[in-house]
């Protein structure tokens, strides 16, 4: 059986700013009022024979919406976003970056372009790599951005598109409901960028 929640009617929404790096029109920072539709398929279960209690589903969605609401969405694994190097102090606390310590490199390596050492390889950055920083700084082509960290939400995604966001929501809601021991087969999420366009992802 399937249950459905319509985001615009149920108040599952958030408003955020984002950038789709190097895209001709969406490469400029701009915002959307998003709403999130959810469909859940599974077996009816428990005393009430629910697929999942609507309240549990809405709580899960709202928790994510609340994290993203009134923030700049930063997809830390986007290959066109070059994040500024972490400070030496932060790097020393993070084993992952020991091997790419640029201060050592610049002494031992030659003449390679110094400016390329100012940025991290972000293909496998995690949100924790930014822990305790006050600002997030990055470059997209010739544009430099610096935001207070508290204004941003860092996402372990390649893009902050509706496509990636629907996947992000579906994965988290799926795990939340599994933890509550519902007999869920799939969680499908449509993240709508306003009315009339959205991306739909089904996690099975
Ligand atoms: Zn957009």
UniProtKB/TrEMBL annotation:
<keyword id="KW-0862">Zinc</keyword>
<dbReference type="InterPro" id="IPR007115">
    <property type="entry name" value="6-PTP_synth/QueD"/>
</dbReference>
<feature type="region of interest" description="Disordered">
    <location>
        <begin position="94"/>
        <end position="117"/>
    </location>
</feature>
<dbReference type="Pfam" id="PF01242">
    <property type="entry name" value="PTPS"/>
</dbReference>
<keyword id="KW-0479">Metal-binding</keyword>
<dbReference type="GO" id="GO:0046872">
    <property type="term" value="F:metal ion binding"/>
</dbReference>
<dbReference type="InterPro" id="IPR038418">
    <property type="entry name" value="6-PTP_synth/QueD_sf"/>
</dbReference>
<dbReference type="GO" id="GO:0016829">
    <property type="term" value="F:lyase activity"/>
</dbReference>
<protein>
    <recommendedName>
        <fullName>Dihydroneopterin monophosphate aldolase</fullName>
    </recommendedName>
</protein>
<keyword id="KW-0456">Lyase</keyword>
């Amino acid at each position: 059986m399937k249950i459905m929640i319509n985001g615009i009617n149920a108040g599952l929404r958030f408003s955020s700013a984002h950038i789709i790096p190097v895209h001709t029109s969406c490469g400029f920072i701009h915002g959307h009022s998003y709403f999130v539709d959810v469909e859940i398929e599974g077996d009816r279960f428990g005393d009430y024979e629910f697929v999942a209690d609507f309240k549990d589903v809405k709580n899960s969605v709202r928790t994510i919406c609340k994290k993203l609401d009134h923030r700049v969405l930063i997809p830390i694994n986007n290959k066109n976003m070059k994040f500024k190097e972490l400070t030496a102090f932060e790097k020393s606390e993070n084993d992952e970056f020991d091997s790419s310590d640029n201060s050592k490199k610049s002494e031992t390596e030659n003449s390679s372009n110094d400016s390329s050492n100012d940025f991290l390889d972000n293909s496998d950055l995690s949100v924790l790599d930014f822990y305790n920083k006050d600002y997030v700084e990055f470059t997209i082509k010739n544009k430099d951005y610096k935001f207070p960290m508290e204004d941003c939400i860092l996402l372990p995604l390649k893009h902050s598109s509706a496509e990636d966001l629907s996947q992000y929501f579906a994965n988290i809601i799926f795990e939340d409901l599994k933890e509550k021991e519902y007999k869920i087969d799939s969680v499908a999420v449509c993240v709508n960028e306003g009315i009339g366009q959205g991306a739909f992802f089904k996690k099975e």
